[in-house]
Amino acid sequence: MSNEEDYLQEYTLRSWLLTTDHKRVGLLYMASITLFFFVGGAAATVMRLELMTPKGDVLGSPDAYNRLFTMHGVIMIFFFLVPSIPAVLGNFLLPLMIGARDLAFPKLNLLSWYVYMTGGLIGIWILLFGGVDTGWTFYTPFSTMFSNTMVVTAALAVFITGFSSILTGLNFIVTVHTMRAPGMTWFRLPLFVWSHYATSLVMVLGTPVLAITVMLVALERLFHIGIFDPKLGGDPILFQHLFWFYSHPAVYIMVLPGMAVISEIVPCFSRRPIFGYRFIAGSSMAIAIFGFLVWGHHMFVSGQSMYAGMVFSIISFLVAIPSAIKVFNWTTTMYKGAVWLDTPMLYALGFIGLFTIGGLTGLMLASLGVDVHVHDTYFVVAHFHYIMVGGAVMAYLGGIHFWWPKMTGRMYPEIWGKLSALIVFVGFNLTFFPQFILGYLGMPRRYYEYSPEFQVLNVMSTAGASILAVGYVMPLVYLLLSLRQPAYAGPNPWGATGLEWQTDSPPPVHNFHDMPVVTAEPYDYSPEAFQEEHDHAVSHASR
Amino acid sequence: MWNFPLFPDQASTNAARVDALFLFELGVILFFTLAVCLAIFVLVVRFRRGRIVDRSGPPLEARWLEVTWIVIPLILSMIMFAWSADVYFRLYQAPPDAAEISVVGKQWMWYLQHPEGRSEINQLHVPVGRPIKLKMTSQDVIHSFYVPAFRIKQDVLPGRYTTLWFEPSKVGTYHLFCTEYCGTSHSEMIGTVTVMEPAEYDGWLAAGGAGPSQADEGERLFVQHHCAGCHRGSQVVNAPRLEGVYGKPVPIQDGKEVRFVTADDRYIRDSILMPRQEVVAGYQPVMPSFQGQISEPDLLKIIAYIKSLAAKETGTVR
Ligand code: HEM
Ligand SMILES: [Cu+2]
């Protein structure tokens, strides 16, 4: 284990900004999306403070609130959730997991980060110099003819950022097809890779539609060309079709990678092969494909035809099935295992619980008659936070903890990790569960003032948000502090299978000293094996 | 402080239907959530690391199990689908005898007009037990008409009519919200729906003064905007008469072909605003557009007037 060639060795700024190493690009992404997460989180905190009382007395102006929730949404979706797991963990791990030296197009990979940062900085610029008040959904004709804010600039930011998604997706697809190590057949791919493959297909096929849509919004705004504005002969519903044609599959861009992480953590911390490997792999592909056919379930009350509503409803019910398969399979994986509740596993179990609630309430939204009542209320806000925050963010944090020793060579203090997982779980439920009730009671979303009888539940939600905020700041602190220790984690502190664990931590520049050859199925765990290496590594961290 | 609601009022016939389905789904959801949580809990405890249990031969795949948990959710979700589609269809198919109230949304208020003529802003008065149909449009952006106690909601679009109906079942005052984000004062675009006893409602209508009905106002506008000059009496130009047109198929010259279009609200609205779009067979495209000259509420009045002519004999070509 020669330390000279570990990928973190060079320290200059230049060496980071010009790197083409997928591992370093992953870390560049990690630093930037962390920044965006906390900016978006700060916006959420202020919003929750505003909503503590029924009157708008914190921000003092409805416009300020409208800009805040727009930026919260735009930042969280486009600059945090969409890139989070694929661009950070995917970039870092995909080549390691399939036994490759790098991604297929390393320079394109670096370019994707620059493209992302360009979009992101425009986003921050908007935030500082005026804001946008359309909501992240940019519905027309409000966004094209009525809003007086920086809509065109926001469209530009989203347009540009989309390209980084497309580049990452392309890179992953080509890499998985062409760079697998000898013996790494399709059915020996880790499920993480399967999920990222499915995600990449969605990115490559869906994102261009978003780019076209926001471009049309900008053109309509600048030149009044009459695509969406009824006064000019356009159709406002057309925008919704175009927008959701990307943005519904985008939900799967956010959650499939989360499932990818869970599919790695659960077998490792249960010490047994994952249950139903092929069903899980297949369900990722099914979700990616069916995900393109259900966009109209956002439009049951939009004025689209009732028959279209029926078709979208039935297909939406069908997409729920592959997600259910995954939940049942993950759970069954623990049967006859040797379960071990370290931090990543706590996050993963949290994911399963919250994702189950988020997914099942999705059935209510797919139900035509019920959706009419809860559409655009806090019920929907609760539902999508359960999926995106309870699901994707939990998985992201779980993944960061799981692979932190691999990325940095350091263990984090286990006790703090467990505490953070617990605080996040409790804070999360306190924040978002009351919103289901608020929504069924009829509190509409995007409201800066509300009727006084909704207050108690809103206060609960705000209290939860402050607990949640603590839970999110904790990992930032102890993970960064862990960097001050020497790199003692060892190549495989969890005793995990998977090629990424067969090389040093942190890995050498070219990933492997000798090119691996794959001879076994993935998740070749046995419940009996004891994890001395793990205990050793953990004890180092808590010294 | 602790007296806050956990379940909304049930004030329309639709509310009971939606709630029944909702509670069924809630049951299913609770069952599966608890089942998953319980399974996790039991497995974690029973098979936690270091505990001596039988771990031999863990199953890697079980076709019958996978099939079971594909088929059961499938059946349950198809039940939910069929049930919910039924609720949805009832929500959008108004009974023919429903009283029709016009709704115009604009940043940031609701304008409502009763057929008898009385109009109100951000308030709607309706009699209990009688079906009401709303005909809605927007003057600017998309809004959405939402009465939680009735479990109804429908987007209100510029340039188009959408409809919604309900039958209030409980006297009282309920929230009316806008649920499609529509700009600065979106959260202030609210109002109330007051459900009254029928007798009280008639009194309320009368208290507005025996003003002209919506159709009568429409007739006044029909004359004022010089529609009458061409469309009735001693016609200046050869234009189709409008008696009996509403709801009937109208022949439209489409290039060389003639096709039939139903003369509904959309058709009449488009004929006023974009008269060259659909020209009745046998007539010249000479009608001017009234785009920008007639307000949304006035358009609704003119349509109400033309609708009131539906029963009269038609003078159109055939
Ligand atoms: C600390 C945790 C968070 C809190 C307290 C929070 C709170 C809120 C609130 C109050 C709203 C406005 C709801 C409305 O008025 O419609 C909102 C909207 C939203 N949130 Fe969060 N949020 C949090 C985290 C997140 C995260 C992590 C994401 C994504 C990763 C996210 C995505 C969104 C989106 C997409 C919207 C919709 C914005 C829109 O309506 O345009 N939130 N959130
Ligand atoms: Cu509105």
- Head-to-tail CA distance between termini of chain A: 24 Å
Share of β-strand residues of chain A: under 5%
Assembly state: heterodimer
Q: Can you count the helices of chain A? A: 17
User: Kindly state the mean pLDDT of chain B as a whole number?
Assistant: 90
User: What best-fitting shape of chain B do the alpha-carbon axes yield?
Assistant: elongated
Highest CATH level, the class of chain A: Mainly Alpha
- CATH homology superfamily of chain A: Cytochrome c oxidase-like, subunit I domain
Question: Treating each run of at least 4 consecutive H or I residues as one helix, how many helices of chain B?
Answer: 7
Largest sheet of chain B: 5 strands, mixed
Strand order of the largest sheet of chain B: 3-2-1-5-8
EC number (chain B): 7.1.1.9
Main location (chain B): membrane
Function (chain B): Subunits I and II form the functional core of the enzyme complex. Electrons originating in cytochrome c are transferred via heme a and Cu(A) to the binuclear center formed by heme a3 and Cu(B).
Cofactor (chain B): Cu cation
Question: Can you offer a commentary on this structure?
Answer:
The complex is a heterodimer of chains A (543) and B (318). With 543 residues, chain A is mainly α. Chain A has helices at residues 13-17, 22-50, 62-81, 84-98, 106-128, 142-146, 151-178, 191-223, 236-270, 277-290, 306-333, 343-366, 368-374, 378-408, 414-441, 455-482, 532-541. In chain A, helix 4 runs parallel beside helix 7 (151-178) and helix 11 packs antiparallel against helix 12 (343-366). The longest helix of chain A has 35 residues, at 236-270. The model of chain A has no long low-confidence stretch (mean pLDDT 93). Chain B is of the alpha+beta class and 318 residues long. Chain B has two domains: 7-44 and 63-211, Immunoglobulin-like; 214-314, Cytochrome c-like domain (Cytochrome Bc1 Complex, Chain D, domain 2), CATH 1.10.760. Helices cover 35% and strands 22% of the residues of chain B. Chain B has a five-stranded mixed beta sheet, with helices on one face. In chain B, strands 4-10-9-6-7 form a five-stranded mixed beta sheet. The interface between A and B is large, with 92 and 87 residues. The structure holds protoporphyrin IX containing FE and copper (II) ion. Copper (II) ion binds at residues 105, 143, 178, 180, 182, 186, 189 of chain B.
